């Protein structure tokens, strides 16, 4: 199994100031294939601020960050891309 340095950096679980700085980079990678990248980055950034982690890859992998996966909108749909 191959894990890139990128995936290791964005999958932090600690809740400290240093990890929050990684949200921009993590969301950039998460949203790079999105058809609406600005909306994706805004939602991802909001989720990352609350959870201090972003799942690796461009979709799925929610098990890597359960907090990120559990956030929902008012309509009970997933908030985080």
From TrEMBL:
Pfam families from the UniProt entry: GASA
InterPro entries reported for this sequence: GASA
Entry similarity comment: Belongs to the GASA family.
Name of this protein: PREDICTED: gibberellin-regulated
Organism: Prunus dulcis (Almond)
């Amino acid at each position: 199994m191959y894990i890139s340095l990128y995936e290791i950096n964005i999958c932090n679980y600690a809740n400290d100031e240093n990890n929050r700085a990684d949200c921009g980079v993590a969301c950039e990678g998460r949203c790079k294939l999105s058809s609406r990248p600005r909306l994706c980055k805004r939602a991802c950034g909001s989720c990352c601020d609350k959870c201090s982690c972003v799942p690796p890859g461009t979709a799925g992998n929610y098990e890597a960050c359960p907090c990120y996966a559990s956030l929902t909108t008012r309509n009970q749909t997933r908030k985080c891309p």
